[in-house]
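The authors assume throughout that readers already know how a fold can be written as discrete tokens. In essence, backbone conformation is discretised, so a fold becomes a row of integers matching the chain in length. A single example would do more here than another paragraph of explanation. For illustration, here is how one protein appears when written out as sequence plus structure tokens:

…
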Amino acid sequence: MIEILPDVLDFGLVLVFCGTAASSMSARYRAYYANPGNSFWRSLCQAGFTSRLFEPSEFRNLLDLRIGLTDVAKGKAGSDADLKGSDFDTGALNAKILRVNPQILAFTSKAAWRAWKGATPKQSVSWGWQEEILGATRIYVLPSPSGAARRYWDIEPWLALAEDYRSRMRPLGGGEDICRVHTK
């Protein structure tokens, strides 16, 4: 299988963000969350994961912050509505996460979590910490930063996860700087 975007994974990660699949624009620009309507990069900064606003092309630099990136569907790009169940490779995702063993796997939407679980759209899931654990990795679900999901947007779960992330980084000498970007 040819991956649309490369995984950004390594050993020693505190957090891995996992989406459903690369958007068409992300595939075109070969960068995660490249659509200007997607608030992923702004949310990372505003919530305090990063001390400055990253450009999508800088996605590999997240490794310096012990943050990784991946998707449930690595071989297809497009909106969630364009994806079929066969596009998702949960076995491969599980194997990657079990291999690198991050402290947290955060799904960037309920749709991504459902794709991972093989759940139907009607299966309820709450934002925040989940009961499931993958090896030693805790699972977290975030509101989607996609412009298509704007009506469901809530930064509070992002803020809560960022606080947890920073507390895990402090003993390692990082995570104190908070982004000073303001939005309208």
